[in-house]
From TrEMBL:
PANTHER family: FERREDOXIN-2, MITOCHONDRIAL, FERREDOXIN/ADRENODOXIN. This is 2Fe-2S iron-sulfur cluster binding domain-containing protein. It comes from Microvirga brassicacearum. Belongs to the adrenodoxin/putidaredoxin family. Keywords: 2Fe-2S, Iron, Iron-sulfur, Metal-binding. One of its GO terms (molecular function) is 2 iron, 2 sulfur cluster binding. GO terms for cellular component: cytosol. GO terms for biological process: P450-containing electron transport chain.
Amino acid sequence: MTKIVFIRPDSEAVEVTAKVGDSIMHAALANQVPGILAECGGSMACATCHIYVDEEWLSKLNPPSSMENEMLDATASERRDNSRLCCQIEVSDRLDGIRVRIPESQI
């Protein structure tokens, strides 16, 4: 199991574990992490699973696809250099302990 730390807008940390191969979004939904809406269920059609990946973890991720890049332009909260859709990040052993921040708003 891989540990994922979600930092809420109020700075509260929510730690969850996920199976390798799942998405960070699925881990958030399975653990009822507040602030990850995922209205489209991971089909990359809504941008309501927007997160900010802590800088130290960015190099461990595959770069966003062109489609993810387009969806990131439609996020409710400010898009930043470390913005990602968590439906597009696959959990792996190398991500154990990853820290991601949940934006103020998803809609």
